[in-house]
Fold these 2 entries.
Entry 1:
Amino acid sequence: MTSTVFILNGPNLNLLGTREVEIYGSTSLADIGVMAKASAEALGLAVDFRQSNHEGELVDWIQEARGKADAIIINAAAYSHTSIAILDALQTFEGPIVEVHLSNIFKRESFRHHSHISGVADGVICGLGAQGYVLALTAVADKLKNLG
Ligand code: DQA
């Protein structure tokens, strides 16, 4: 059976391509979604690619993933640095979790250096732009193969 990966994106990532292009690049979130779907297909995975500006909606989606997804890739954006609710939700998920950031959060302001999500993620990819999502999918495919 094909494994499903939820790719969840947090606040302001809907503005990618027009938002702080020097930091986040000119690729839109829709383009990243297309890239992720193509990579997932090549890896034999199905993806459900979503974005929300609302913390509670992200929590709802992580809870939904418990019944529907085999792995989660998450760029919680600014909520990475603030949200215990998202951390708690991720702690209830049993499959692999990979955290992604487009920018290198360690090269930026000190308030971005800590992510609550890193403590529960199996791996963290940051600073590699849109390619980070493709790398995360490759890692998840490998992890699921080893689990299955
Ligand atoms: C981000 C980094 C966060 O610090 C920031 O709040 C974002 C995007 C990234 O992908 O580089 O919105 O998660």
Entry 2:
Amino acid sequence: MTELIREIDPLRARLALARERGLRVGVVPTMGALHRGHLALIAEARRRAQVVVVTVFVNPTQFGPNEDFKKYPRTLEKDVEACRAMGAELVFAPENESVLYPPGDETRLRVPETTKHLEGAFRPTHFEGVATIVLKLFNVVGPGVAVFGRKDYQQLQVVTRMARDLFVPMEIVGIPTVREDDGLALSSRNAYLSPEDRQKARGIPEGLSAAVAAWEAGERHVQPLIAAARLPIAAGATSIDYVACADAVSMAPLDELARIERKAVLAIAARYGTTRLIDNVVLGEDPAPIG
Ligand code: AMP
């Protein structure tokens, strides 16, 4: 049975009971509009914990002023149903922002180095909002484990860094990106794409797959790997924010002329119409998104 909880106190009371009984709590933070990617996170949380809390909260502080906070899809009833089907015990979905940002709230968390480049460079306040809400949720839930998707690779590194730096006593797990049959990463934002742009967005998995193929053929220089990824993306995208390689832990960018010596991620952000999509592969680790 899945229980929908909308306030902090009843959630804490429920979880305190679980912990007293020695049960490990797992949390899956989401903004709702759940798809198969989210469901894979819940499945992983269930493997690692006896009580799973899915949080559903469209977090205002991680949206920039011109971003899609207002139009972000909100589908709570369906989300609770999906959590039920996945066997999650609890859904924590605050009714409004003031549950997690009560009047007078002002504290914000910064993870300056990990957020300097890639998404952080294009969305300057985004990760401050992410780090802040994630620590709030960790403090409310008190989980033994939290599960995130590698689809938002930099976010996973930000949360991992934050939890280490602040000695948050829990495990953080990242799971591989769940994709459509044609390789496009599942995202709540895919719903915004027109049918034409949805077709064009196949350029993203094509580009990432071309980079993986080049890597597997022995290419270790940044520039040709980026060039391989960029070509199919540029063919269909309205605009590209970045196609770049970064250190897979620190997220420091790798110079285009460099040779890759340590684990690296190739990450992209591109717009199709007004819809901004991100994706990535960890070179030498992730399979090609296509085939
Ligand atoms: P969101 O609801 O978009 O904020 O995402 C909530 C969590 O789901 C984050 O940890 C995301 O990385 C993860 N996630 C989103 N899309 C996918 C996907 N296609 N595969 C795996 N995880 C995902």
